[in-house]
Specification:
This protein is mainly beta. It contains three helices and 23 strands. It binds 6-O-phosphono-beta-D-glucopyranose.
């Protein structure tokens, strides 16, 4: 436990201490003085819960989908919450990533708790880190350091991924990165805007030629009424995801692409860790740098950021 504040209520009875930051066995719990909370597993630095109220309804409610069948014991990447994708998105295509699994290793390694970054009336944030371990080096032999800063405010959650190239040789570190947000929402209602006229690649196409063929989004609001796995390239970096009675705004920086994914029954029922009908309760809106590779020079740090706000 980092800090505890004793609160005396008007009846003079001591209420349980408010703990902005709790470090439990395998996870960290952040609690905002106004009631919002977030839970972060050290495994994969995966945020598995974010509860926040809206301006209209201040009662903190869950904003992220987490499958009832998700593995939280480190045996498999978490099906839900916000897994961190690094250094490759999807199956590896870069020669340096050839021994990595789909979506890279960041989501399936245990990160270190580093520090509490802020703890004040407005926000509480923590920093986790991941560097080369023998098991990572065995499959990815590059010098790097990752830091992940998660910040909780009353109506907002921010995630910042810092990628440092710690090499002493002049080689750039080339990578992809993405925040795999599972947004808890009725999938048959959600609309994502504004993606109209943005070029995208449709990974549900059955041929390689079809998947590599750029399409242009014609819809003013993108729905997921059918199996959807679309990679929008050069997207606006600011999105609204809305449904009847709810919505989230996503603002990003250094993440030029966005993936919209919903497996529907077709792909969802094949996943051992997806709860029955789970695909009806979320949409993944995943800001990232995933078309091509971004890079960072030796001794430098790249920062990719998203801010999720309750509308
Ligand atoms: C999305 C990809 O980001 O993640 C999909 O675009 C993929 O193609 C989905 O199926 C889930 O991936 P995983 O590895 O967590 O099952």
């Amino acid at each position: 436990m980092y800090k505890s504040t004793q609160v005396v209520d008007i009846t003079g009875l001591r209420r349980p201490p408010s703990m902005p930051f709790q470090r439990l066995d395998n996870r960290i719990v952040l609690t905002h003085p106004k009631g919002a909370s977030a839970e972060l597993l050290l495994f994969g630095a995966t945020i598995i819960s974010w509860k926040a109220g809206s301006q209209a309804n201040p009662e903190p409610t869950e904003r992220l989908f987490l499958s009832l069948k998700a593995f939280l014991d480190g045996s498999k990447p978490v099906r839900g919450g916000i897994p961190v994708v690094f250094p490759c998105f999807g199956p590896p295509t870069h020669p340096e990533h050839s021994r990595l699994a789909q979506h890279g290793f960041a989501r399936s390694e245990t990160w270190e708790f580093d520090s509490v970054v802020t703890d004040n009336a407005d926000s509480v944030s923590v920093r986790l880190t991941l560097g080369p371990t023998p098991s990572i080096t065995a499959k990815y032999n590059r010098s790097f350091h990752l830091a992940y800063v998660v910040t909780l405010e009353e109506h907002r959650l921010s995630t910042d991924l810092h990628v440092t190239n710690t090499s002493t040789s002049p080689d750039n570190l080339e990578f992809q990165a993405l925040f795999h947000n599972y947004i808890l929402a009725p999938a048959d209602q959600i609309l994502v805007r504004p993606l109209q006229n943005i070029m995208y690649y449709d990974k549900t196409e059955t041929t390689e030629e079809g998947r590599n063929n750029a399409k242009v989004e014609s819809r003013s609001g993108v729905d997921v009424h059918k199996y959807t796995d679309s990679v929008y390239e050069g997207a606006p970096q600011e999105y609204e995801v809305t449904w009847s009675g709810g919505g989230l705004r996503i603002q990003t920086s250094e993440l030029k692409d966005v993936v919209i994914w919903n497996p529907q029954k077709k792909a969802g029922s094949k996943m051992a860790d997806m709860e029955d009908g789970g695909w009806e309760r979320f949409v993944c809106v995943e800001p990232g740098y995933v078309r091509g590779f971004t890079n960072v020079g030796a001794g430098n740090t790249w920062v990719g950021r998203q801010v999720l706000s309750v509308m």
